[in-house]
Q: What sequence folds into this?
């Protein structure tokens, strides 16, 4: 049984439909990537999983339980946490206070301030500074750490590399093995298709709110991804965003 699954998931913003019958699954300890052009529905998929977009109750399943449309706070307490696009740190709080906000879910587990500081030492050095005073990459580390402090079963990451330098992106993704080492499942929405394919075990491509491709990441060819991403045959080197 999949840990997380959507069945014919549909999502709307008012009268505008954003997702059309999405079937998605995430296994225990799996890292799945979601790619697609701007407006394809990637962020809406994550928001549907976390209750930020209201969907039909049985359209989203977690450990076999229907959770679609539950309040975000309930879903976090059940074990799904999101690293939102743009980090969304609390500007009035220090780095450490932002991290501690994640612990309000009240879940027990391996993630603590000590462990986060071991993984991202720069955050300990800057723990008393305002979270929004840090560089973009350091703020992303805070956003990841805040989600991990809820000790989730599933970590959902929306656009981790957005606006970051390549060396910072590498540092963040180098931390993924430590995050998944104890069986945590991860979904990443990623701009860079090559990075998404390299770090994930399975990959979904969305196009105009529908799944256009799904498969084992190491088995998909550049041509297949180009066709699914753009809806037409395109040179593989163009598939970078």
A:
């Amino acid at each position: 049984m999949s840990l997380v699954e959507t069945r014919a998931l549909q999502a709307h913003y008012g009268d505008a439909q954003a997702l059309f019958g999405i079937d998605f699954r995430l296994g225990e300890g799996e890292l799945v990537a979601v790619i697609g052009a701007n407006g394809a529905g990637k962020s809406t998929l994550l928001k549907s999983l976390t209750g930020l977009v209201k969907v039909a109750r049985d359209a989203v399943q977690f450990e076999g339980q229907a959770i679609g449309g539950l309040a975000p706070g309930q879903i976090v307490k059940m074990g799904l946490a999101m690293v939102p696009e743009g980090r969304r740190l609390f500007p009035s709080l220090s780095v450490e206070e932002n991290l501690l906000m994640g612990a309000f879910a009240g879940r027990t587990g391996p993630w603590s301030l000590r462990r986060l500081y071991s993984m991202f030492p720069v955050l300990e050095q800057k723990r008393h500074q305002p979270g929004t005073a840090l560089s973009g990459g350091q703020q992303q580390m805070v956003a990841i750490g805040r989600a991990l402090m809820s000790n989730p079963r599933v970590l959902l990451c929306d656009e981790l590399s957005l606006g970051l330098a390549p060396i910072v992106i590498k540092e963040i993704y180098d931390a993924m093995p430590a995050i998944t080492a104890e069986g945590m499942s991860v979904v990443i929405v990623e701009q860079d298709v090559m990075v998404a394919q390299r770090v994930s075990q399975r990959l979904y491509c969305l196009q105009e709110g529908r799944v256009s491709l799904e498969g084992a990441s190491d088995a998909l060819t550049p041509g297949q991804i180009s066709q699914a991403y753009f809806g037409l045959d395109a040179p593989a080197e163009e598939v970078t965003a």
